Amino acid sequence: MLDLVDPRATATPLARPLPGFPTASTHTAMSGITSDQNSVGSAPRGTALTKTAWRSAGDGGRSLAAELADRRFALKVAASRVAMHLNTSWRAGLFGQLDFLLSEENWEPIDELPSVASFTTALRLVTLLGAVKRPGLGATAQGNVVLAWTNGSQKLTVECQPNDLVRWIVSHYVAQERESAAGITTVARLPILIAAYEPEKWLEQR
Amino acid sequence: MTPIYKRPPVIEALFEVRFASELDVAGLSKARKAFDRRYDNVSEELGYEIRIDQSSQGAKSLGLSALRFDRRDATEIVILRKEGIVMSLLAPYQGWDYFSSFIVGELSSLIRSVGEGKRISRYGMRFINRIDIPFVGHVTALDRYITVLPRRVGVLGAASSNLACHIGAMDFNPYLANLNVSTASSPLINHGAIVVDVDVYREYEASISDVAVELDRVRRLKNEIFEAAITDSSRALFNA
C-alpha cells in the first residue's frame, strides 16, 4: 500500500519531485553558482568545470537596487507556490506591499533582507488562516517577515521565522482594560493560542 | 472535453524551443532588444570556467550565456539561451487562452530578433501540477488521488510514504511524452502533496513559425495524460 503520510507522524522525509528539464522558477538564483552542475569539491584535480551565475543586467557589481530586485523576485516566486490558494486581489495587494517595503527609498541598507524561508512561514500562516484581512507587512533587522493585523488600538503582531516558527504578540482590550500576551510557537499552533483573544476582530475581512 | 478547474493545480506552465544551431553572443544581444520592452527586469547569466589544479588562476569568464526576462509580479518569465528559449508562467494559472497567447507573442518576438529562417530541433510543453491533499488522520491512500502507482509485490509491498514514478518517452506519434509523479511536501499546513509533471515534446527540424500551429494538439495530449493520471478525488480538490 502506498500512502501519503503526515510528516508529523514519521521521521521519513517525503520524496522531492523528480528533476525534469530546467524550469524557469528553478533558475531564481541571481548570484552565486547554480547547483545543477558538478560541485567543485567533487571534481578531480586538473578538471575544468563550467559554471554559471545570474546578475541583474547593467549591474556590474551588486548594487542595493539589484539586491532588492532579486529579493522581490524570489519572494514573489515563493508566493506563486501557493497562488492558487490566495485571492487574486489579496495577492496583488501583497505584491504591492513587497514592492513598497523592498524599494530603494524605504529600505535601510544595514538591515538583512527578508529571507525566503521567513516569507514561506508567513505564507503558510496566511493560507492556514484562510480568507483573512491582508496584514501590514514589515521586516526585522535580522531578515524576518513581520505581519501585523490592527483594529483600532488592538493589535496582533507575528514575526515569522524560518521553519514554521512564529513569535506573536497580542494587544487586546477587555472592558477597557489592556491585556497583552506573547509567545513563540509553530504556525500550526498559533490559531489555537490566540483563540482566547477573539482573533476575528483583527483577521476578518470587511 | 477538458475540464476547467476553479483552482487549477498548475504551479508552472512552460514551453521550450531548442534551436537547431546555437545563437552566438551577438544573436543573444540582438534578441534582447525584442524582449526587454515587455518586461520589467532583465538578468544576465554569465559563464565561468574554473580549473581545479595547483596553478589555478581563478575563474575564467566565458561571457554571456543566457538572458532572463521577468515581470514585476514574477508570473511571466522568459529565459533565452544560446541553445533555445523557455517561456514560463508561474501560478496562478490563468487558463489556456492566456498561456497560448503568451507563447505566440514570445515566438513572434523571437522570429523578429533571430529571423524567420532560424531552424529549431525540438519543442516541448511541460505542466507541473501540485495536488495539495489535506491530512485527515495521519495517512491518506495515494490511490484515492492518482492512478499512476508502482505495483508492489512480495517484500516490496511494505508500507512506504515516498513515491517517485517516471514513465518516459511515451510514443504518441509524432509526439513523445514523459510523466513524473512524486510525493512532495506541501506549502500548506496539515497537507501533503503529489506532483504530477507532464512533458509533451516533438523532435523534428522545423521553422519557429511551424510551432504555433501545433499548440492546441500538444495541449490536448498533455491534458489527456494529466486526466488519466488523476482521480475524481483530485478533481474535487481543484474545484473546492
Using brief descriptors, characterize the structure shown.
heterodimer, A: 206 residues, alpha+beta, five-stranded antiparallel β-sheet, 26% helix, 25% strand, globular, B: 240 residues, 10 strands
Overall form of chain A: globular
Greatest contact between two chains: A-B, 68 and 84 residues
Radius of gyration of chain B: 21 Å
Structural class of chain B: alpha+beta
Structural class of chain A: alpha+beta
Unreliable spans of chain B are none
Could you tell me the number of beta strands of chain A?
7
Helix content of chain B: 10-25%
- What proportion strand of chain A? 15-25%
Order of helices and strands of chain B: EHEEEEHEEEEEHHH
For the biggest sheet of chain A, the summary is:
5 strands, antiparallel
Number of strands of chain B: 10
Count of individual helical segments of chain B: 5
**Mean pLDDT, all residues of chain B:** 89
Which percent bin holds the helix content of chain A?
A: 25-40%
How far do the termini of chain A sit from each other? 46 Å
Low-confidence parts of chain A, pLDDT < 50 over ≥5 residues?
A: 10-21, 27-43
- Summarize the helix and strand pattern of chain A as letters: EEHHHEEEEEHH
Largest sheet data of chain B? 9 strands, antiparallel
Q: From the alpha-carbon coordinates, what is the Rg of chain A to the nearest angstrom?
A: 20 Å
Characterization of this structure:
The complex is a heterodimer of chains A (206) and B (240). Chain A is built from five helices and seven strands. Chain A is of the alpha+beta class. Chain A has a five-stranded antiparallel sheet. In chain A, helix 1 (64-80) runs antiparallel to helix 2 (88-101) and helix 1 (64-80) packs parallel to helix 3. Chain A is globular. The N and C termini of chain A lie far apart (46 Å). Mean pLDDT of chain A is 79; it is low at 10-21 and 27-43. A nine-stranded antiparallel sheet of chain B has the order 2-3-4-5-1-6-10-9-8. Chain B has 240 residues and is α+β, with helices and mostly antiparallel strands. Chain B is built from five helices and ten strands; from the N terminus they run βαββββαβββββααα. Chain B is globular. In chain B, helix 1 crosses helix 2. Strand 1 (3-5) of chain A pairs antiparallel with strand 7 (139-141) of chain B.
